[in-house]
Request: fold
Amino acid sequence: MITIGVIILNYLAYETTIETMNSFFAQKKDGFEVQYVIVDNCSPNESYDKLSKEYRNHPNVIVSRTESNLGFAKGNNYGYAELCKHCIPDFVIVSNNDILLPQQGLFQWIAEAYEKYQFSVLGPDIFSVRGNFHQSPGINRSRDLQALKKELNTLRNLII
Reply:
């Protein structure tokens, strides 16, 4: 059994978060155990109460609230710490609360991609329609020391 943790950060938009959760729930889970953590990032509305009520009887959903708004990165780190209190996942998905998954097989696809690539971090291909280019993943800019020195000299000349 492969364990997947899903972290969803909510701020103010509990209805959107519920739609995202429904999208994740609709995914096939054959061979997977999925643990969800919804982090309400100290929303000043009824988000935490609504989400807690919505998932109070769902055994694989944890709804937690931060004491202050931690921002995006710290809020997700908080969610990861909460997730690790309940399981040690094989994979972790950090998702925005406005993501919908129209295709089946996300969890299987992740497991198959790992078998093939042995990745440490897997992210989306983000394509800019306006600019007609791939924003992420970016170009691999790994360089040796000589290439870095050359680039540094070029930048120095531009500054001068």
Observations:
- The longest strand covers residues 2-10.
- DSSP finds five helices and six strands in the chain.
- The CA atoms of residues 14 and 49 lie 9 Å apart.
- The mean pLDDT is 90.
